[in-house]
Amino acid sequence: MSLLTIAFRSIKQRLFSSTLTMISMALGVTLVVGVLAIFGIVQQSFNANATLGYNMVIGAKGGKLQLVLNSVYYLSEPIENIPYEYFLEYKSQEVREQEYSGSYSYKAVQHQQVARATLVAAGVGLHSPVTAIAAMAADASVQEQIDTLYPWKRVGKYAAFTDFAIPLCLGDYVGPYRVVGTTPDMFDLLRHGSEAQHEYKMRGNGRNFEQFNQENGFFEAIVGSVVANDRGLTVGDTITPSHGSEEGDQHTTKFQVVGVMEATGTPNDRAVFINMEGFYRMSDHAKPLENEDAFGADQQAHKITDASYILPVEKREITAMLVRMDPLYSVGIENQVNEGNLAQAVFPIIEIRKLLDLFVRPVQTLLMVLTVLICFVSGVSILVSIYNSMNERRSEIAVLRALGARRGTVYAVVLLESMLLSFMGGILGFFSGHALIAMCSGVIEAKTGVQVGFFDFAPPIPLPIPIVGSISSEFLLIPGLILLAVFVGFIPATSAYKTDVSKSLGK
Questions:
Q1: Which of 229, 306, 326 is nearest to 270 (CA)?
Q2: Beta-carbon-side half-sphere exposure of residue 55 (alpha carbons within 13 Å)
Q3: 422 lies in which domain range?
Q4: Which phi and psi angles does 114 have, rounded to 5°?
Q5: What secondary structure does DSSP assign to 102-150, as a single string?
Q6: Residue ranges of the chain with pLDDT lower than 50?
Q7: Domain boundary, last residue among 290, 321, 342
Q8: pTM above 0.85, yes or no
Q9: Are 143 and 199 members of one domain?
């Protein structure tokens, strides 16, 4: 008969006490698995969501963490806005000229050039050499102004180092969910996943919103999966944002839902995205100008549905922008931006790691200490259970010895029994922990946007073993439980080892 069989029979004989011992161990392991997996997955998700294809967030001066939480996770309130003109510093000359074409300053220059051309054609001031030279100087001066002062004539200051820059406008809500005004680039250029490798996909016949749509104009929207599930939204429905908060005044402008995102496990699942031009056309969203000249008066003559009218650059602001920049220059650009008075640049991954280290990790450590203590107490219960059974088992041990079993064999049987109780309790706790995570996955996703499932494990940790490399911290529980079993089984095994055969058989 093998040692394993003898150990199993011993456990079976004391089934009730053995079951209670395994359950206590399983409870401790369940808590350990839950803490490791949930905190690890949440941490991994925060890190992944901080790098969805971009590496820098730029917004108004203020708290760096607040900027990241607001712009990336939609958790905080906006600091301030920055001018749209600053956003264009990250764009090419072609894009800048297109954006500025409807600006007041562009119209003013055009007006000035037409006026000068009219005067020249009429021959005004060209009858003397002095006035002719003055006119030539004026022309050169104006041209110099156009080249140096008027921004549409040059490449953006940071354009050469920028792969893309995506603007964000925040401030409205649909129920408890944030409304984000942006451009189609949000879903054309950004990716999601642990390595930012997955494209955003829409349910059914959904699509990305367009810069301008013949049917819906500038008023198209995309909703995240959590928003759609919670509010029962599908393609074709309309939404009406509220200004400033969930309880704020409702806008009169309606947006047509043209896409519902498939679940991504990112904060975007809990947001509503609308065309930025449509965002500007809602009441109180255009930047007021103190001294609007004659070129600003035409705004009143256009309806919000008029596709030919684009809000001038001077009246636009953005909350933040998501920027992917060449890593070789990103640190230098960050320092340059932060030295200015207008905006600040932040690496979101750095701020999130600071947040996790400051708040999340201490809580995780505390819970881990408590759960490890529970596991230790469970191990002590194994010790007590086996040790208390020694009095009942002395006759059995004496019979084994009388049949030829060595002291070392008896020692090994008791130690193996402790290891089996610990191992079976650990396995039960491992699966119970992941079952609990799967059961709570809906609540976790609804509250945090983080997707967890039965087969989601704690992030791997590096090991100094060439072949293995890294392994999830959960799987280190197995050797840990075996060591615990050896430790707690030592005392009862030693007691069995010292059993006197003659005295035990004589009773």
A1: 229
A2: 14
A3: 3-47+354-506
A4: -65, -45
A5: TSHHHHHHHHHHHHHHHHHHTTTT-SSHHHHHHHHHHHHHHHHHHHHT-
A6: 125-128, 130, 132-133, 136-137
A7: 342
A8: no
A9: no
